[in-house]
Amino acid sequence: MTDRATIDAEGLNPGDPLAMLPGHVSHGRFERVLRAGHFAVSTEIAPPDSADPEEVLRRASLFDGYVDAINATDGSGANCHMSSLAVCAVLTREGYSPIIQVSCRDRNRIAIQGDLLGASALGVCSVLCLSGDDVSVGDHPEAKPVFDFDSVSLLQTVRTLRDESRFLSGRQLDLPPRLFLGASINPFAPPHTARVAQFAKKVSAGAQFVQSQYCFDIDMARDFMARARDLGLTQDCYVLMGVGVLASAKTAKWLKGAIPGVHIPDHVIRRLEQAEKPKAEGRKIAVELMQQLAEIDGISGIHLMAYKQEEWVGEIVTQSGVLQGRKPWAPTHLSHITQPAKA
Amino acid sequence: MYRVRLWSVRRSRQMEWLYNTFNPLVVKLLRGVVKVFGTRLDKPITAVEAAAKGFFFDCKMCGDCALSKTGMSCPMNCPKTIRNGPCGGVRENGMCEVKPEMRCVWVAAWDGASRMEHGDAIKDVNFALDHRLKGKSSWLKLARDD
């Protein structure tokens, strides 16, 4: 695919920004995939405990051809790793579509607004706004928690920067950041009656896509989506349901106990306990969940979180068939176009 | 006090009635006080507000009171001071992820709001707090705003 049309559409080098299509807010491939009506798959990259950019690319390459976007976590679990912004910058240079995760835990409104401009300048096209885990659960519990924003006021802030081309102070921007705006939802934690209203609040604050916490309970997901559809939320916002890959019953119990907000029904744990090969069973559960979720009206994609099982992402996505034969962009497709093409 | 705080949320409807009845009067009175005394009575007024709201709601004196919009559960008691909650980390028993011995402030808030006449205000987006207001009186702010 070295023809002129491809170069015009995708740029000369993988890291070049794409042309912005009408009705889009970003130059990003992720927004393109969703707006084109494709069923999307996103995943999560674990930022390394290292200053090595090659390690970032090595980790990302595991997903080549299987995912439409890669979330770079921002000090997940309040543990220190390479920053989300830096991981995203390394990825955009190769043409990947990273989603920068911004948590409110570590930075105030001055730092966050600056980072959002910087992210857009570095080619990042999508952002996920999170409140973030409290410092007390991480590896630096003595740190000062910031929480100047919460996820909703952060969403409002990104929208202000982008759509009103100004800082919260009112000072004008010369060029606003072009960011496709995302938020997280957790349909599986109490207070259950408020969860759809909380989703609605995020949409009204500017969320254009949401990614959910792990879904292991398909009935709960169906119920949540039905209520979200009733409020018309799925017309304004793309929903990517979170799917996790459990390595064993032990991991499942640990997740359930140690990570508040993760709901794993007993029958899933029992299934892992009774399995001869729990790891393979965990992957099978993920595949089945993806297939079941893809059937639910209003779900536009899957956010596959395969922490420490990243090498299986390709196989899980392929087996689930949710991409229906579509092959997401990967840097190898264009890696040979590093020199200007002679027309 | 934690127990009183939970009690106040359970009686969110009565608290709302009290608020709706007395708040306009208090604001009117304070407007007069401010006119006559300027800022000279700010300290005692702030102390009264802190004591009263501290007793009933564990008020943290953020200076921009949201109680009437948050089911009478003070959002500043959330360890992450989330003003548009809940976060995604609520435990299955409805307790806080950071402080497992405390009921999630936002579980309480949605519960309190469900009993209030204007409980739907909880669905409105609260903008990020102005941190310059911390420790200042919300009552005096209302009296001076108009």
Fold blueprint:
The complex is a heterodimer of chains A (343) and B (146).
Chain A: H1 4-10, H2 29-35, E1 40-45, H3 53-61, E2 69-72, H4 84-93, E3 98-103, H5 109-121, E4 126-130, H6 151-163, E5 180-185, H7 192-204, E6 209-214, H8 218-230, H9 233-236, E7 238-244, H10 249-258, H11 266-274, H12 278-294, E8 299-305, H13 313-320
Parallel strand pairs in A: 1-2, 1-8, 2-3, 3-4, 4-5, 5-6, 6-7, 7-8
Chain B: H1 2-10, H2 12-37, H3 42-57, H4 105-115, H5 138-145
Would you give an account of this structure?
The complex is a heterodimer of chains A (343) and B (146). Chain A has helices at residues 4-10, 29-35, 53-61, 84-93, 109-121, 151-163, 192-204, 218-230, 233-236, 249-258, 266-274, 278-294, 313-320; strands at 40-45, 69-72, 98-103, 126-130, 180-185, 209-214, 238-244, 299-305. The model of chain A is unreliable at 334-343 (pLDDT under 50). Chain A is globular and about 60 Å long. The two termini of chain A are 14 Å apart. In chain A, strands 1-2-3-4-5-6-7-8 form an eight-stranded parallel β-barrel, surrounded by six helices. Chain A is built from 13 helices and eight strands. In chain A, α11 (266-274) runs antiparallel to α12 and α12 crosses α13. Chain B has one domain (2-145). Chain B is built from five helices and no strands. Chain B has helices spanning 2-10, 12-37, 42-57, 105-115, 138-145. In chain B, α2 packs across α5. The radius of gyration of chain B is 15 Å and the shape is globular. The model of chain B has no long low-confidence stretch (mean pLDDT 96). Chains A and B meet through α6 and α7 of A and α4 of B.
